[in-house]
Amino acid sequence: MKTKITELLGIEYPIIQGGMAWVAEWHLAAAVSAAGGLGIIGAASAPPEIVREQIKKVKELTDKPFGVNVMLMNPNAPEVAKIVIEEGVKVVTTGAGNPGEFIPAWKEAGVKVMPVVASVGMAKMMVKAGADAIVAEGTESGGHIGSATTMTLVPQVVDAVDVPVIAAGGIADGRGFAAAMMLGAEAVQMGTRFCVAKESICHQNYKDKIIKAKDIDSEVTGRSTGHPVRVLRNRMTKEYLRMEAEGATLDQLEQLTLGSLRKAVMDGDAMDGTVMAGQIAGLIKQENTCKEIIEEIMADAAKLLKL
Ligand code: TUI
Fold it and tell me: What does the alpha-carbon distance between residue 13 and residue 295 come to, in Å, rounded to a whole number?
């Protein structure tokens, strides 16, 4: 399937993997890229030299294009931004902030820049700053979120900018993919579905928590802090929301969640760890390989889009 995004990035299928902290490491990124999508290494809060090693590992495994997600709340983001250029990475996505200061250097190095945004205003600002494409991420997504839904955000971003738009948030199958195309998107980004991929190193308990999740099993923590984060409900979210309702300080809330994503993803503590996932978790019923996921979505979407 050819779209403006497959042409821009030189990939086979218009499916981009989300830059999930801890989960989006080299195994997953290489598998998504090898299957014809765009694999992404999520730099998140990793030390910059670890990101460099991750990039080298993906390069060893596949000749296909892949990208790096730069998480802008990370104090090391400037260093990661530089490593991306030094290692000749072709595509960057960004999250949780404004990447404006890094765009000129990326553009000069020929890196394709695709900021993840949650509003039309931010999308316009990013295009003015030189973005090659925009990832419009709805509030259905897991992790750090904005407030607009994918259904409302994507067409408004499509109308507001003259670069291709990638839809994200709430997409996990061929129906979601086809719907995104109808909204004017040129590709989709998926996180939760790839988190449960066979190649994902995410702990089995975390994957099982997603597989067992029902439609309304996510909560948004941190609304009071200005950093809302969508996670699956567990003992941790109950405690967090209780503390938040009682007016806990930012410090107290940060203390509670310190290292909690790592605890869930790496140690499998799905009760007291942070299990970031999108609202579409309820749709995901089993683990598949990245190739199976991508090929199933493309086959189902092809049928729907022909109707
Ligand atoms: O970035 C994400 N999702 C994330 S980042 C992350 S790591 C984290 N962990 C705990 C607390 C906070 C972060 C987990 N999930 N998605 C992309 C995204 N970016 N969604 C929303 C935004 C966004 C928000 C504000 C983009 C730009 C923005 O601009 C504000 C500004 O600086 O003007």
Answer: 9
Q: Is 96 in the pocket of ligand 1 (CB under 6 A)?
A: yes
Amino acid in the structure at residue 278 = G
- Between CA 105 and CA 182 the distance in angstroms is 34
pLDDT tens-place string over residues 45-73? 999 999 999 999 999 999 999 999 999 99
Whole-model pTM? 0.98
Residue with CA nearest ligand 1 atom 8: 144
How many other C-beta atoms are found inside a 10 Å radius of the C-beta of residue 55? Answer: 23
What's the CA gap between 118 and 147, in Å, rounded? 7
Whether 146 lines ligand 1, by a CB cut-off of 6 Å, is yes
CA distance 196 to 2: 27
Instruction: Report DSSP state, residue 205.
Output: H
Measuring from atom 17 of ligand 1, which residue has the nearest CA? Answer: 95
Closest CA to 213 of 271, 168, 272, 277: 277
- What is the number of the ligand 1 atom nearest to the C-alpha of 69? 1
Instruction: Express each pLDDT in 159-181 by its tens digit.
Output: 999 999 999 999 999 999 999 99
CA dihedral 83, 51, 281, 299 (to 10 degrees): 70
pLDDT value of residue 254: 95
For a pocket test of ligand 1, which of 122, 144, 189, 225 has the largest count of ligand atoms closer than 8 A to its C-beta?
144
Q: Indicate whether residue 71 lines ligand 1 (CB < 6 A).
A: yes
Q: Is 126 in the pocket of ligand 1 (CB under 6 A)?
A: no
In short, whether 166's Cβ falls inside 6 Å of ligand 1 is no
Tokens of 56: 């080298």
Identify whether the C-beta of residue 117 lies closer than 8 Å to the C-beta of residue 96: no
Kindly compute the dihedral angle of the four CA atoms of residues 66, 171, 277, 150, in this order, to the nearest 10 degrees.
100
